[in-house]
Amino acid sequence: MEALGKHSLLKFMFISLTLYSIGRCYCLAFAKLGASVVVNDLMDPETVVQEIQKLGGKAVGVKASAEDGDTVVKAAIDAYGRIDIVINNAGILRDKAFINMDDKMWDQVMSVHLRGTYKVTKAAWPYFLKQKYGRVVNTTSTSGIYGNFGQANYAAAVSQ
Ligand SMILES: NC(=O)c1ccc[n+]([C@@H]2O[C@H](COP(=O)([O-])OP(=O)(O)OC[C@H]3O[C@@H](n4cnc5c(N)ncnc54)[C@H](O)[C@@H]3O)[C@@H](O)[C@H]2O)c1
Fold this sequence. Notes:
Elements: E1 8-12, H1 22-32, E2 36-41, H2 46-54, E3 58-63, H3 69-80, E4 85-88, H4 103-131, E5 135-138, H5 142-146, H6 152-157
Helix pairs in contact: 3-4
The protein binds nicotinamide-adenine-dinucleotide.
The site of nicotinamide-adenine-dinucleotide (NAD) has 22 residues, from helix 1, strand 2 and helix 4.
């Protein structure tokens, strides 16, 4: 646990208005372990940034889409000079019975979950290689393992 404190954490995504949002939990948990955190979300990440700072942790925010992985990773490099851990956690649902699902609903979910994961990880990869160290954590779902009614798009996107 102490070693983790030496690493900067790219916390990809967080927030949501629910107290139990998974991204926020990742951020606080890693900050408590001493990681320097980048809080990324489409929404303003300042609430969680300030929550971490008030607890004595290190955090900066970047309001951007996960699909803009270069911007997200640049925020980590600008703030901390390195990036050690990427947590791909951004997510959306566009549930619909498969017969009624349209291309837009399919593409939106693929863009956030699959392309977002690819873009942030891809942007971090050169730093991982240079450092000879890097870790990627992808949030998935039981829908990605077992499938679920109305979630053909989501199940496919999170089974990576
Ligand atoms: N809540 C559950 O029961 C559950 C179960 C299994 C998996 N998951 C997965 O866990 C992750 C987090 O779930 P949650 O319940 O905390 O969701 P949430 O809706 O509370 O939070 C998702 C966050 O992702 C952000 N986001 C959406 N698109 C984005 C983008 N393009 N770039 C950056 N941020 C973006 C949203 O603004 C939101 O703050 C998701 O990937 C979700 O699919 C959730």
